[in-house]
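Internal tracking record. Fields below are filled automatically when a chain is submitted to the structure queue. Please do not edit lines marked as system-generated. If the sequence contains nonstandard residues, flag them in the REMARKS field before resubmitting.
Queue: standard
Priority: normal
Entity type: single polypeptide chain
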Amino acid sequence: MHVRRYGTERPGLAMTAPPRAAVTSRPGTAAALLGIAVLAVAGCGSQGVARSKPIVARFPFADVHAAPAPAGWRATAIASGAVLSYPPDWTPVGGDPGTASAALAGARQHIIGYLNVTPLQGSESLANWPEFRVRHNAAEGDRAVTTEATAYGVRFLTGTGSCVRDSYTTVSRARYVELACLVAGAHARSVIVAAAARAQWIKISPVLYRALSAFRT
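SYSTEM-GENERATED OUTPUT FOLLOWS
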C-alpha cells in the first residue's frame, strides 16, 4: 500500500515505507517506514466505491470506551493539540506535516497495524464524514472501497465524533480494514484513523479500539 494525505491516511506499505496521513490516513508497503506509506482521504469522486448498505448504528463502535491510555503506552501530539496514544512496540512513522502516525510491522516489514491523527482540513463534517471518507479513499486510488458500518455521536475522551468502518484494497493489492473517525473535541476537530491488515484484524483490532478510546482532541 502507499501513502496518502490528510486526516485520511492509510497503511499499505512495508515498514520500509510508511503509511500516510490525511483527513484519514492509511497503511501500505514501501521502502522507508521510515518510509511507510499511508493513503490519505481527500474528499471527492465516488469512482471505485463499492455499493453497500451502511449500518447507521453504534456497531462496531460500541467497543470505543473513552478512557486514558494504558500504562506504558506512548503519546504524540500535533499542533492542534490532538493526542495520539500507541503501544510501546509500535513505531512512529513519517507522514504529512502536522500529522502523527504509528505503525506495527509484520513479516517482511509489511504494515499490519496503523494509527494516524490529522487536523480537520477540508469540507468534511460530522454529518458527511462516513461518505466523505470512503469517497476520498476511492479518489486516492484504492479499489473495492466498501462501507461496512457507520456511527454518529460516538463518545471520546474530549468530545464526540462520527465514524465509519470501511475496507479497501491498495494499489499493492493489500487488503485493509479501517476505523476512521472525525472527532469534535474541546480544542479542535481532528481525524483519527486506525487500520489493520484484513488477515490480522482479529489480533490487531483490540489495540486499535484502545487507541480510539484514548484519543484526545
